[in-house]
Amino acid sequence: MICNSTRHILILAALSWPALSAAQPPRPATPVAVAAPQPSYADLADLALAAPTAAHVRLRRAIPLRPEESAGVAAGHSRFYMEAEVVALIRGAPGTPALVKYLADVPNQADGRAQRPPRRSEYLVFARPVPGRADELQLVTPTAQLPFAAGTADLARSIIRDALAPDAPAAISGIGRAFHVPGVLQGASETQFFLLTSTNQPISLTVLRAPGEQPRWSVSTSEFVDAGATQPVRDTLLWYRLACFLPEQLPRSSMSETPEHAAAINADYRLIRQGLGQCNRTRSR
Fold first, then answer.
1. Which of these, 202, 149, 147, lies nearest to 177 by C-alpha position?
2. Of the four listed, 26, 53, 66, 117, which is most buried by Cβ atoms within 10 Å?
């Protein structure tokens, strides 16, 4: 049985998961099995960047919670109390205990019944510590427990390492001003977009057009536009910051140009969005 104190603390932590209890749609009449697709770079970045603690764990036991303790569980899932051994700490405070406890929402079986995770199964968990309880965690989302795979763990480590680097690109919070300057030659131009970031780190996008050439765009992460700047490589932290958080359409507030220049700015912004490609996610944020 679960200690009443531990049950109470973990359930209170689960209730603080944002926008789950009221916003979930009703359960379907016939629940379906939820297959866990391979997480994309964006999936892992969403979890890893939000989690002060990330760990490779091995399950010791999983106990299903009663319905009254499972408010807000997504359709096709059941909530479990988990106890797990920490195999490797990917990110976290020194002194994290070797045994941790947390709540997780686990996909049901095809017939809709709860599917108890097998003992000694291994997972990657992305969580926050519970204040005052060193051995208890709160997952950053109720399903932030992924089946362990070495490649997934390596990618999570890479994302966290890149995010902690001194020159890591900051989170994008919006788009500031955009400027368009026609060139001397017909068809030549330069457009610059200045982005807003969470730390006021300067990030700008530049599109250059020249007669008879394909347009080129690049990103600069310094106060001065770098002549050697290039496009970000897909599935890197800079690509994620841009592809997953730039708006699909340029805000009107970013432009105070003539209609002709505004049309050119919008065309160049579409070029950048197309070049970045889709931010593919297999999980809901």
1. 202
2. 53
